[in-house]
Write a sequence for this structure.
């Protein structure tokens, strides 16, 4: 039986702080992929107070994925151009790994840890951390967009009851940007 | 877990979706982003590739790519492909207008990076912040230059709010450029044939390079502390994984 940590246990906040620092310090490299994957692995290992005991029905999960993915598709097709060259297969694979790992960390661990103080804080807090860790590489000007994306991912986590819904959308959004 | 009704879930999701679209639109209008961003934190913007690198880039500079494309045009002037990019991503063209014709036709497009100083010095108060790119769009059959209007999107090195066009042997700023600092790109409408270069005003600051000569101590220390904390939590969580809930 998988352990459920007692409220006040220290692994979750320790992993949240450690994972956030590790993600903030990333520089584009192969090592960064390993760091991100490690963060995701620990994010999936550490038990949180509000685990996904009652996953939502598949229909609700699917609605969350579709509704959460549509704004990324619309923005990509109608608002933004995409003039950079297509990414290499390895870069696309790394992008998929990173998307899943980040969602395990932010929408499972961080969200689950923050949820004891309320859903709103869990959604906004995980989105704020998610946006903040991208600043060193992408700059402050992408912060509002990353925060808005984090809110959608947080909403998907809440609506579907699972981190897998935002993970699918996160992968989709990264593929839109790189293919 | 508190009840989260379907109606409330849908309405809040729609609100956040609208918020995302508004932020996207505003970010594009403000020049903060121009393209769909990655949300993975793994891919930074690669260093600019110079034909004639500045002093601080002499050691690590890579040669920029020249490209040649074949573009097909329908009778209504629709281009296929609708846009082209050099393989290093430094110069992108989207075809806004191409003249319609009774029969479909094709043209050859060459995008060639060159040193802008080879043509003329920058206008007073400007600096070049990238390579000049010569665009040559020639009708495949007749060899005549194509009449048309493109949007030219140019990567720059540091900060370039302008695109200069070579006209009668001097560089002239194009009207209504749009710069996106986050992507290090500037765009403007240009004729199909010509020579263009990204440019800034004032004194060009040195390009920040951090690839080898300076060790990123801060990132290394912060990242190491983070990994130690993270792995500590992971080990404890692993050891506790079979512990019954008390």
């Amino acid at each position: 039986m998988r352990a459920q940590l007692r409220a006040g246990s220290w692994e979750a906040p320790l992993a949240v702080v450690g994972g956030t620092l590790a993600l903030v310090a990333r520089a584009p490299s192969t090592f960064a992929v390993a760091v991100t994957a490690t963060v995701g692995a620990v994010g999936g290992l550490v038990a949180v107070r509000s685990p996904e005991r009652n996953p939502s029905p598949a229909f609700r999960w699917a609605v969350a994925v579709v509704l959460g993915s549509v704004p990324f598709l619309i923005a990509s097709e109608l608002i933004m151009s995409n003039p950079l060259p297509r990414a290499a297969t390895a870069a696309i694979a790394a992008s998929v790994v990173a998307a899943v790992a980040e969602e395990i960390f932010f929408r499972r661990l961080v969200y689950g840890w923050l949820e004891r103080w309320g859903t709103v804080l869990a959604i906004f807090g995980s989105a704020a951390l998610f946006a903040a860790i991208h600043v060193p590489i992408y700059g402050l000007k992408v912060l509002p967009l990353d925060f808005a994306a984090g809110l959608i991912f947080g909403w998907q986590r809440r609506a579907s009851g699972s981190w897998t819904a935002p993970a699918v959308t996160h992968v989709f959004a990264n593929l839109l940007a790189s293919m | 877990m508190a009840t989260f009704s379907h109606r409330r879930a849908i309405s809040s999701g729609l609100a956040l979706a609208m918020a995302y679209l508004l932020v996207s639109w505003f970010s594009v209008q403000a020049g903060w982003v121009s393209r769909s961003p990655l949300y993975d934190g793994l891919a930074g913007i690669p260093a600019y590739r110079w034909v004639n690198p500045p002093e601080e880039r002499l050691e690590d500079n890579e040669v920029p790519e020249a490209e040649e494309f074949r573009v097909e045009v329908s009778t209504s002037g629709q281009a296929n492909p609708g846009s082209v990019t050099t393989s290093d991503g430094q110069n992108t063209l989207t075809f806004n207008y191409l003249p319609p014709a009774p029969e479909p036709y094709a043209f050859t497009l060459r995008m060639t990076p060159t040193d802008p100083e080879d043509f003329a010095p920058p206008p007073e108060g400007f600096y070049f912040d990238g390579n000049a790119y010569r665009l040559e769009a020639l009708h495949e059959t007749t060899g005549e230059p194509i009449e048309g209007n493109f949007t030219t999107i140019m990567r720059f090195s540091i900060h370039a709010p302008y695109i200069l066009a070579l006209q009668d042997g001097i560089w002239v700023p194009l009207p209504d450029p749009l710069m996106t600092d986050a992507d290090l790109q500037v765009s403007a409408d240009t004729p199909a044939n010509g020579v263009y270069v990204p440019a800034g005003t004032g004194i060009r600051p040195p390009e920040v390079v951090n690839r080898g000569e300076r060790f990123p101590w801060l990132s290394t220390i912060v990242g190491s502390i983070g990994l130690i904390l993270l792995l500590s939590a992971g080990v404890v969580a692993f050891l506790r994984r079979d512990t019954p809930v008390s």
Remarks:
- Chain B touches chain A through 73 residues (CB under 8 Å).
- Chain B has a mean pLDDT of 86.
